[in-house]
Write a structure and sequence with these properties.
Elements: E1 3-8, E2 14-18, E3 36-39, H1 53-57
Antiparallel strand pairs: 1-2, 1-3
């Protein structure tokens, strides 16, 4: 299940919630009762192992 981030419009609290994609989005902040909206979060990933640019395809003469 993905983790979604919500931000409260009133208190600016940011929540991370584990939700099924089919679940209804949260609407009310539990802390202050303000309105919540989804935040697009930064995500990162790393490619490990053979077959990726940093291990196999990088040309040695380019620096």
């Amino acid at each position: 299940m993905p983790i979604y981030e919500y931000e409260c419009e009133k208190c600016k609290e940011v929540l991370e919630v584990l939700q099924n994609p089919n679940d209804e989005p949260l609407k009310k902040c539990e802390k202050c009762g303000g309105e919540l909206h989804k935040v697009i979060a930064n995500s990162t990933f790393h490619l490990y192992g053979s077959g990726f640019y940093t291990t196999d395809n990088k040309r040695k003469y380019l620096k």
